[in-house]
Amino acid sequence: MTTASTPEPATDLRPDEPDDAAAFIEAAAGTDDPPAPITGVRRLLGWIIPANLGIYMIWGAVPGLLLPAQIASLFGEADKVANLTIVATIGAFCSMLAQPIAGQVSDRTRSRFGRRAPWIIIGSLAGGLALIGLAFANSLVGVIIAWSLVQIAYNIAQGPLSAVMPDRVPRSRRGTFAALSGIGLMVGALGGQVVGSMFLGSIAAGYVTFAVISLVVLSLFVVFNPDHSSKDLEPEPFRFVDFLRTFWVNPVEHPDFFWAFTGRLLLYTGYFAVTGFQFFLLTDYFGVEKPGEVIPMLGLISLVGILISTIVSGPLSDRVGRRKPFVFASSIVTGLALVVPWMWPDLTAWMIMTFISGIGFGMFQAVDTALMSEVLPSAKSFAKDLGVVNIAATLPQTLAPGVAGAIVLTLGYAALFPVGIVLSVIGAFAVWPIKAVK
């Protein structure tokens, strides 16, 4: 991670590249690369890992660990599955709505700091305050409101952050950028589990800690990676119909985008239908008495698999110039990993699954992000379209708690595994109809 206080020279900027925001729109609307970042691509590559860490530590620690523990502590063991289902479903629905709206707003933002930076700061600050509110919530309604605000606020930051790659990174470097972004994402999510497990005895302190880390890291990202000014761009007029289109990309006009979206939707649905209940799977299905002691080890096991596959697959995808085979393989591996604990319901099997799915999910995160950036419909709406893309990640988290909760309550935990397997494998085949990307 770069810590120098003075900007590096823009060594990646070629003489024939545009260097202002208007030229960026014109160039990126076609097949040309966007202009290089003001401080160069290398610095951006270095900072995307901590930026994603700042957000994804929260997603790793809170919904999968601290929030279930808080709900069980506040409302008792008997209703913990039902209460978690309600809280997670409403919160994820808010997340699904927030990110594409935030993306559209940032696409239209005109400031000397660019289109994304103001919302990254605003979202991280508001999210930190919402986390502190969640720390002091003591009723089901209070938890629902606070967690929903956390989801909305951090997605206000995450939506614009996801647009950094198509905004500033040349196509030839996007596999590497996506790999580093994926490392930050997955290490953040797993590191959040490890760090979060240390706060099971003091959940409120954990929430405050993650709020501070996120605000500091995202603020540093904005400071050390300034964007091109968007002041001189012609403001886009607001139309209510355009607002409604925030949540829609025409699959007939943009079939590649549709298939990429569908593949991500299916994989995430299959994955989160199972892993979203990890805390209760450990306690109620595998018989783990102290999950807080096991989860850090599971995080480290998964991290090893993720780092191996991410470091190799992202740059290798750039080298061979292909994305689809990597995305296909990652979905198959992730789905097949779920067979192990289904056939062998034991903690050891869950550990094996964690490592194998780490390999699959690491490869997916490293390459699918680059693939998605190459099938976006319009440069003028990168953040909005990426917000729609991220619905493929957040919609499963909206549906999975309700569907998985119903499955657990009626058929038991074991029934989650075949659902996850089928959806992940189908998602692998969804990428093959894509024509614009090899």
Describe this structure in words.
- This protein is mainly α.
- It has one domain (37-226, 248-429): Up-down Bundle (Growth Hormone, Chain: A), CATH 1.20.1250.
- It is 73% helix and 0% strand.
- The protein has helices at residues 21-28, 41-75, 80-107, 117-135, 140-162, 164-168, 174-197, 203-224, 240-244, 255-275, 278-285, 291-320, 324-337, 339-343, 347-373, 382-411, 416-429.
- The longest helix is centred in the first third of the chain and has 35 residues, at 41-75.
- Mean pLDDT is 77; it is low at 1-31.
Defining traits:
438 residues; mainly alpha; Growth Hormone, Chain: A; 17 helices; 73% helix; 0% strand; globular; disordered N terminus
Brief overview:
Helix content is 73%, strand content 0%.
SSE blueprint and pairings:
Blueprint: H1 21-28, H2 41-75, H3 80-107, H4 117-135, H5 140-162, H6 164-168, H7 174-197, H8 203-224, H9 240-244, H10 255-275, H11 278-285, H12 291-320, H13 324-337, H14 339-343, H15 347-373, H16 382-411, H17 416-429
Name the overall outline: globular
Largest sheet: none
Oligomer: single chain
Q: Can you write the helix and strand succession as a string?
A: HHHHHHHHHHHHHHHHH
Mean pLDDT: 77
Helix content: over 70%
Number of domains: 1
Look at the helices and sheets and give the structural class: mainly alpha
Total DSSP helices: 17
The fraction of residues in strands falls at under 5%
Instruction: Give the termini separation.
Output: 32 Å
